[in-house]
């Protein structure tokens, strides 16, 4: 997966940390006809033969344990799993596909899988294999192009607001509901003792680009037009860039830190008092504090503040697809169906902490009894998929650089919006 050197550790520790620390207790071209004409239905007979599975290291590390019931119920099937370092995964997968040596099943990331969503690469999801309505809508949508579904959701995450509840209580403030409430909230946290109200992401890369895309949605914008053209030079994109920059110009955040690896220690020490981040961070804070129970006593979560239009976030996580060149598609789809079952996704959560993509799985007591996850569950129901455009990652990376220029006063928000539109048009959409 390109550009993951800074955040690949998150994919490796996201679920595992959650399970360790909290054991108590769109925008795409999708529509309602997701599975497809011509896709052969998969029956209920036992799977047989060999199924080769490729996945990125991290959430897939526990697949051997999670698929044991599948192997027991299908004694004539052999599941071979190959785990590949996260940062190398997409590169190796693309090379294998090009050489005609790809696996039967491959893991994808819904926020960056657009380049694979094509019938020459993936088989359409068979009609009736799963209930698409059982998943968070945007996660399903992320795998749909022109009404054809190519991937099935496996695990989910999104961003929410994580903040120091002790400092908020001291300041007498509640989590912000709207953009206009955000700066006063952050300043109040600073008044209660934090050096900075927000530990902002300063990587200025693809992940920041995803953040500002989310803000543009909240402002009422879209990233592409209804006919699939880039739509980035808009008042909503300029508003998003300014909203992000205001964190820094107001003094609530610092352009020099914390760096990626310092985010949790800064938060625990009070150098920062909030983060806009994913659920994995919850499992890292007790470790950073070197004190069990620190998180439950000092931390709260909330859905993101709303812009002029909404409080929408983006959907991310993991999905599964069956390659067009699979030699055992029937057994492969049966394994994908098993991995998408609510009980399996609960088992995956218990084994690694991967948050389910199936909504009903969140009713399991192992997840439901963890109140800090409530905001993420609420937010996941209010998410969009990034554009199913193969050049989106390039555009998002450039958008991160434009965010830096605005935050550091080298460019205006309107100028940055124009710059990113020009860049996006120069790289195109990858569509014919």
Compile the SSE list and pairings.
Layout: H1 8-21, E1 49-56, H2 63-66, H3 68-73, E2 77-84, H4 86-98, E3 105-108, H5 137-141, E4 144-145, E5 148-149, E6 152-157, E7 160-164, H6 165-171, H7 179-191, H8 206-218, H9 235-249, H10 263-269, E8 274-277, H11 285-289, H12 294-298, E9 299-302, E10 313-314, E11 316-322, H13 329-339, H14 342-352, H15 365-368, H16 374-380, E12 383-384, H17 392-407, H18 413-427
Parallel strand pairs: 1-2, 1-3, 10-12
Antiparallel strand pairs: 3-11, 4-5, 6-11, 7-8, 7-9
Q: CATH class of the largest domain, please?
A: Alpha Beta
Strand content: 5-15%
User: How many distinct beta strands?
Assistant: 12
Into how many domains do the coordinates divide? 2
Q: What is the count of helical runs?
A: 18
User: What CATH architecture label of the largest domain applies?
Assistant: 3-Layer(aba) Sandwich
Structural class: alpha/beta
N-to-C SSE series? Answer: HEHHEHEHEEEEHHHHHEHHEEEHHHHEHH
Strand order of the largest sheet: 2-1-3-11-6
Outline: globular
Q: What's the story with the biggest beta sheet?
A: 5 strands, mixed
